[in-house]
Every structure is written in C-alpha cells, then in structure tokens.
Amino acid sequence: MMKRTLLLSFLWLFSIQLGWGQCAMCRTTLENNVSNGEAGIASTLNFGILYLFVTPYLLIGVVAYFWYKNSRKNASKKSLSSYN
Question: How far apart are CA 54 and CA 67, in angstroms?
C-alpha cells in the first residue's frame, strides 16, 4: 500500500512538471500567431484548454454519481434485510 501511494505521488508530481513546460510553449505560439493575424489556431487552442479543464471534473462527477447510486442501493438492501 505504501509503495502504491509513493508511486502515485511521484507520478502526480512528474505530471505537474510536464504541464508547466507546455504552458510557456502554448503562450508563445499564441502570441506569434495572433500578432501575424492568424486567429484560427488561437481559438482551437482555447477549445483544447477548455476540454482539458472540463474532462477531469466530468470524470469525477460520473464516478461520484455511480458511487452514490451504489451506496443508496446497498443501504436499501441493508434496511430490507434488517426487517427480516
């Protein structure tokens, strides 16, 4: 269990470092394209940023919904078995 937690912590920290590196590259690309009059790439990149922003929250919401649904089902089964 401890090895798994340590591994997940390491991977999480490593992914943060990769994210910081990409941010400067995206900003530079946008600044160059917008200054040259090309707005198509900027709008596509903004859509990609929004997509990456919403996806984790959507996944967490779906998992939370099924967890809640499953816990309600187990609670109703438990209450029915206590009456018998």
Answer: 20
